[in-house]
Amino acid sequence: MSLKTIHEIDIVKAPHSKIASVDFDNLIFGNTFTDHMLVCDFKDGAWGKPLIKPYEPFLIDPSAKVFHYGQAIFEGMKAYKDESDDVWLFRPDQNLERFNKSAVRMAMPEVPEDIFLGGLNEILKLEKDWVKKGMGNSLYIRPFMIAFGTGVVAAPSTQYRFMIILSPAKAYYSGEVKVIIAEHYSRAANGGIGAAKAAGNYSAQFYPQKLANEQGFQQIIWTDDATHTKLEEAGTMNVFFRIGDKLMTAPVSERILDGVTRKSIIALAKSMGIAVEERSVLVEELIQGMKDGTLKEIFGAGTAAVVSVIRAFCYQDTTYELPVQDDSFALKLKEKLTNIQYKLEDDPFGWTVKIG
Amino acid sequence: MSLKTIHEIDIVKAPHSKIASVDFDNLIFGNTFTDHMLVCDFKDGAWGKPLIKPYEPFLIDPSAKVFHYGQAIFEGMKAYKDESDDVWLFRPDQNLERFNKSAVRMAMPEVPEDIFLGGLNEILKLEKDWVKKGMGNSLYIRPFMIAFGTGVVAAPSTQYRFMIILSPAKAYYSGEVKVIIAEHYSRAANGGIGAAKAAGNYSAQFYPQKLANEQGFQQIIWTDDATHTKLEEAGTMNVFFRIGDKLMTAPVSERILDGVTRKSIIALAKSMGIAVEERSVLVEELIQGMKDGTLKEIFGAGTAAVVSVIRAFCYQDTTYELPVQDDSFALKLKEKLTNIQYKLEDDPFGWTVKIG
Ligand SMILES: Cc1ncc(COP(=O)(O)O)c(C=O)c1O
Ligand SMILES: Cc1ncc(COP(=O)(O)O)c(C=O)c1O
């Protein structure tokens, strides 16, 4: 694919760049922002002209519906720089599509492709110096939409603001990842908003996440809320299980986010001759797999974390340490994926899209 | 109870009041705000000094966590004016308690009583002319807290803003209320945030609500997400069923908001000699009750709607019209409740609290 050109956009450049003051070797994920942001407002049933302007706080009414009813969605993407200083996106069409699915589920207007992807192209051209070369370096992209209309009555807004902000990043997780399997708390309901990248899904996890952290676990693997027997996904990653030489991951459903990394990992694994099954994996299969030695790997997959090897999981107060794999599927898949993203290898799937 | 006095507060008065420009006979619920708002910030682990200042938009960073992760909670209360021009609150201690329960579930700091109730007392003294006399008139009170800290990483904020805004109101619903019983969509998961007055719970309902509206129903009665057989609550109301001469309502749980109106209705009904059962009512009991004529009433109960008589419900494409009751529990309970709220009757429970 190539990015749709945007015809109508205003650009107000920042008088000077902050880039010299940023320590790119010591970035905290999601904390540093580039010089500009994109803003586009929806009112009277239509999107206005997008504006790229200096990154700065903005004014909003205390009764704006985003504050009271959480009508807000977002996406998470990354831009990568290759050795020739070209900047690339990875499957941005998938993020646009998912964003607009989230919009429908949250009763918000869809954002047209030229504003979302065309606008992203423009702001990335302006901020290309913020994308650093080298494996692991990227510019994290956060498109989001909030309900801007006012009024403390629980009904959809009629005004919205779409924005794109950009944050230079290193890899998301560092160190060993140990997870706990959810036995009481849940992330999503049947018929709920789990498949949407809706703001409310994330704060709902903060308290159980805090409890998990206090017990020494970095992440929670969520299970279905009705029985807590089916493994679903982690807070910001889909989860893969390798039992024997087969890779398994929960099917996407209305409870699970349809991850771009997840679907890319599935395609890559298949292309590498690894058998993949999209089906509900039960907690008891993990326990059984630990007993008989067939559970070989667990890993998370997501834009921020890329591929994150899980070293141990806790269930019913027992912690199970996973064996270290010489022939790790996770590491092989991660290498393949990042090589494509950083343009170090051919991209037979046509996933990468050049900014320009 | 009486309201805790606040010792430290700053007040900046609006230079002139908008009140003369407001048409109090034609208010749209939640759309008009008084002259002032209360603002109090939490940072470095502590609440600062509250400030009452003119109602106006405020500045916030595009990466504020409220926008991305929906970390936001609120309350809904009302102030009433009696015939002697005194202003009253109804069980405000219950709202404070619930607010702080919501805060814990959303990994947010609790708001101390003197800031929440003491601050509310101060702003209501200032805005007392906005509370109009007469049954049905009230000043709707919206305390809320949002995650003010910045950063696009899914973790709790370290900075928060607590605010109180006020909106003069007439009754919330008018006309006949017909509801549809949820067969696919859900409001809350087991182990989720349904019992918290968290922003994300509300936008999650907008899309199914829109579908219901398109089919001619004003509200949805939510059912449990696992089986859709148990009746839970409506979007902003708890729900009561009268079968024979017994009143039934779902027990509070982690899926259901512990409504102040709900618990007051239960107490009033008991004091009036009506049998009340807090138990899960099944959809099939309603259908059976329609067949054998024992289902006499359904009504919603909540601060905004007070008591809202439900005229019909739809299930599996069949609409069931409820009989009109001469001896309506809903209307009797509503009268009793509002008489207490407006100080037209004794308040044997000590529920009302005077501003001053
Ligand atoms: C809940 C959830 N699951 C999975 C993912 C992974 O999706 P993707 O690979 O598209 O980044 C994310 C986030 O990005 C997420 O928020
Ligand atoms: C989901 C929900 N249920 C029930 C209620 C009723 O609670 P209360 O009577 O405290 O207003 C409300 C709102 O106010 C609500 O938001």
Task: Report on the architecture of this protein.
- The structure is a homodimer of 356-residue chains.
- Chain A is an alpha+beta fold and 356 residues long.
- Chain A folds into two domains: 10-171, D-amino Acid Aminotransferase, Chain A, domain 1 (2-Layer Sandwich); 177-341, D-amino Acid Aminotransferase, Chain A, domain 2 (Alpha-Beta Barrel).
- Chain A is 23% helix and 29% strand.
- Chain A has eight helices and 21 strands.
- In chain A, the strands form three sheets. In chain A, strands 1, 2, 3, 4, 6, 7, 8, 9, 10 and 21 form a ten-stranded mixed beta sheet that branches. In chain A, strands 11, 12, 14, 15, 16, 18, 19 and 20 form an eight-stranded mixed beta sheet that branches. A two-stranded antiparallel ribbon of chain A has the order 13-17.
- In chain A, β19 (306-315) and β20 (318-321) form a beta hairpin.
- In chain A, α6 crosses α8.
- The radius of gyration of chain A is 21 Å and the shape is globular.
- The interface between A and B is large, with 72 and 72 residues.
- β5 (58-60) of chain A pairs antiparallel with β5 (58-60) of chain B.
- One pyridoxal-5'-phosphate binds next to α6 of chain B.
